[in-house]
Fold this sequence. Notes:
Structural class of chain B: mainly alpha
Oligomer: heterodimer
Number of strands of chain B: 4
Number of helices of chain A: 21
Largest sheet of chain B: 2 strands, antiparallel
Number of strands of chain A: 0
Distance between the termini of chain B: 56 Å
Amino acid sequence: MTMFAPLAGIWMPSPQDLRLFGAELSLVAAIVALLVLSMLFGRSERLGAGVALAAAVAVIFFCRDAAGLVDTGARAALTPPGAASMLVADRFTVFFKLLLALFLATIIWLWMTGAAAGRTGGEVRPVPAGPEFFVLLLTSMLGMSLMVATPNLLVMMIAVETASLPSYMLAASDRRSRAGAEAALKYVLFGATTAAVMAYGLSLLFGLFGTLDLPAIAAAVSVKGMPALGWIAMAAFLVGVAFKISAVPLHFWCPDVFEGAPVEVATWLSVASKAAGLGLLLRIVAAFGGDVPATIALPLAWGVGLVAAATCTLGNLAALRQESVKRMLAYSSIAHAGYMMMAAAIPPAAAGDATVRPAMAAIVSYLFVYLLMNLGAFGVTAMVAWSQGSDRLAAFTGLGRRAPWLAVPMSICLFSLVGLPPLAGFAAKWWLLAALGQGADRHSWLWWLVFVAVINTAVSLYYYVRVIRQMFLADDERLERLAVPVGGLALANGCAVLLLLLGTVAFGLMRDRSLAYAACLARAAPESVVAAQDRLAWNGGPEGMVVNGADRP
Amino acid sequence: MSSLELMLLAATVIPLGSFLLLALAGARLGKPLAGWVATAAIAASCVLSGLVVVRWQGMDAAARAAARSAPVPWTVLGDVPLEVGVNLDGLTVAVFFMVTFVSTWIHVFSIGYMAGHSDEIDGRSKFHRFFAFLSLFCFSMLGLVIADSLVLTFVFWELVGLCSYLLIGFYFHKPSASAAAIKAFVVNRVGDMGFILGLGMVFWFLGDLSLAGAARRFAEACGDPGSALRQAGPLGLDMATWLGLLLFCGAVGKSAQFPLHVWLPDAMEGPTPVSALIHAATMVAAGVYLVARIFVLLTPQALLVVAGAGCITLTLGALVAVVQTDIKKVLAYSTISQLGYMMLGMGVGAWIGALFHLLTHAFFKALMFLGSGQVIEGCHHEQDIRRMGGLWRRMPVTCATFLIGVLAIAGAGIPGTSVGLGGFFSKDEILAVAYSRVYGDGTHGARPHGSAAPAAGPWAMTETGHRSALTHAVPGVEHAQASAPLPALLFWVPVIVAYITPFYMMRCWWLTFMGRPRDDHVHAHARESALMVVPLVVLAAGTLVCGLVLFRPLVAEVAPAGLLAPTVDGHELHEVHHALMPIVGGAFVVGFAVAIALYARGLSLAAAIARRLRPLHRLLEHKFYFDELYGLVLVGGTHLLKGLCDLFDRIVVDGIVDALSASTVRLARFSGRDLDERVVDGAVNGVGRTTWELGGAAGSLQTGRIRLYILLAAGGVTAMVWLALAAGG
């Protein structure tokens, strides 16, 4: 066995580290299993759905396991000792993975409902078919899990691409649809361009700072200052992130893709892609918090704030006149990405700063609530589109009478999207605005963001309520009752009930949980900066650097 | 959570489950199954709470204190944490059992009652709706009983108000029922406005919304002369007094105290079981329960207001009841009067007596209301007692049980012994404390409870610090209050009313059941329903025993000490009771005798007296003209204000608007469609349309389009970077 002797010296991650990344590993295993099983047993859709569902459950299990480990102080980085982290596991990561996995499971649920409806309904509806649909779904999930789990620029790039490439194909998964193919092509061209710009930014950053580790770059910047070229590099780098969030002005792909893609895919992209992108953005913003001087942190915050304001304004205005509900929801998802980015624009003052925590907590809880309300709204839209063959506003006419169990949850989800009490959407938006207001004590320009958010909320009321009006106030006696699959009813009403509960009885619970998750990010960021500074010193960086205020565990 | 708390919680949630079931699938369950579902739910709650009572009785003070666990954090309002928990103590256990027990039997009664009523509206049965509302009410009321924070109390407070509204207006197609429901709701809003302002003051000044925490903070703040609570407020009362008074406003509305008592008689439009459950036994007593819970937040001045309101209410109610001819209205006014006694008791510091009276009253008043329901149902919806009479032959059980209720409310008992019915003990205890506060040497009120009664309840165990702080903190206030006896009216008026109470109750009973039948048609059809008789018998039995054995000790152990503790312990009470004997001991005999003498030969004698006393009779018949007064002043005032606003709107606002619009039209004409399109459409639609086009709805698969996207994206990013650097850097 002498030929393996050199391998003995190679670093291997410890079993505990592997346990912390069980979620990703189980995704990979499921992807391989799907490919192999479909070769062995033929192209069975049910088999694909079953394996994918099992993978989602496994991810949830491993995330819970990892959450326990992380709580006891374990922090894994799949990296040899001394080197910069490639992947990290902290509660923040675990939260996003859990969120994605839960969402993945509901998407598969939605797919199964649709497939059942397609089989029984007689009318042929476009079902994204075959095991490859699930392979692609799981692969994009893998990419998104990686996006939220890395402080390394190169891994970020790989993760973004791993998430994007399957998404392009998912958009075209209904091969008979011309609109789907068109959407996918637009998506891929747009994505390729942003990927190129992002890679360019990355290479510039690497060239400038000699490291791919984001905290190390932040540390270097806080010591040496940011060169002019650095700004361009950062901007180019953030373009890639903004593409995933579909932030203005990189949102152009979003409405086309949502309209052309099958509804499961649109739902998936509307939440998962944004969640992962926001997770990535938060990690970047947090890395540039802490000891980074204001001359660098402030323009960054300004940039994020500006994009956020533009995103939510444009999203809302464009949604006003949409006749397709799916497309309206696409623009609404752009607007909501804007709301969430606003809180990311609050500049952190110092390490362990108290104002960061409410902001992060607000985003975390907003994401969770947004998942529920978007899932409910898209789910009902899908149900209507399947039975009516159209997702135009006219298809919702008289839904209050024709399918009350769809119309009521739809209204709850839409009101929650507006942010009306007593729904969870209100609580989430309230915390977001409260965090902004708190941040505005130090940075008064944040009041402008509050202003923009409030005005936009008022604007958004119009197009959400338009759907509700169509469902309850417009009716046509000739229209018959809708046959709705039970699974879809469960999904929509489940979302609505959760929104009601989270907005009333359980909002304390939601707040505490999201504060706990946010605390990890706020804590993790300075900590990684510290580690990076240690490495910088070890690499021959400036000597005698003092790290103050860092919150060492 | 201790097992006792879990049991109470479960007993609270079970009716909610029943409500959900009936709301979603009640129509399918149909009649009478829907009613039995609700009954089974509340019966399960009753069994659970009965178990809690039994276990509670078997525990010593330490075990009781240990059974209460820390509240669970709910959320944070600003800096004030909001916590929820079960307020487990003797009072909760007693009231909880009373509510579930009375509710259970009223549910049973309701099934019989609703069976004979047309419940179809628009051709669809509303039977299940009735029981769904009853279940919702039970959940809300039980939640109110176990709530341990003012916020939770308020939430359930509003929920019971909603249920009351829904049930008063159950026959909403009847204009009178609909109007009564609205009246009850609006009048209660007035009181709740005060309640929520009081909550705001608690939030602002005390910063703790839990009952125990607020009490602790209140004691600390009162002990500190510099605290904001000791500052003078409007009308020369300090802020602490205002805090208590505003909270008391809620109780004034809910318990139908003067001047917000006008809604309760109208609430009799609801089905009779609802009157028994909500508007006699439980919800209206919630105001007294609230005052008991916030007793430690009431300063001596505030308590004087409470006593005054109670005193006026009990007089008003009793006097009006004398001339009422609708059997339910008599009972309604007697309820108002009895609630007045309870409030008076709270006000003079008869904390135990008032709650004791609450519990006994719940039994005998529910009993009498159900009896009246039986009568009304049996007589084909005849409610006028002048047309009844001689019903005892047709309804012997109802007649006997009703009489037990009459004896109980009259305070019948054998003076000098411990033989008597509910009111004999509870009402007389209130009077005894009032007597000692008026004529006593003033030490009664000030003595710390702990020294007078060695039996320390859970409150004492958990709130020792609070209690000592309270007695310690306000010595000055306490002393001043203790040395100043209360006005003698607060004793003599209730005593006089204690003579009127037996009179009007005996009048009601006699006219209904005794004498000759005055209407043959009514009499001929009268009959008793078997299903409705059982609850009557059970509640009558409860009325017979509950006064003595069950409730007083449970309530007594929780009594807060300090400020104005009742502190008339068993022995002392006995003495005062004896002393009162010559004054009120024979009241019920006198009242009964006068009533029988007047009505033994029918209505003619009474009618002659009424003619003689025409002005007084009219005044009472019109209920002191409160409805007319409020109609004139409040409703009329609102209309006047509306008219003024209308004029202002038409002359001033419309003038401005017209002028503006005229000039706008000019301007628009002047500028022409061109500018209009560019400005308005440009600002709103244009952005949308531009984005629409940029978003590319109709975009076909052309590389030109995508190139445009990418071009725009590149331009946008450049602009953003430039802006961010320019502004932030």
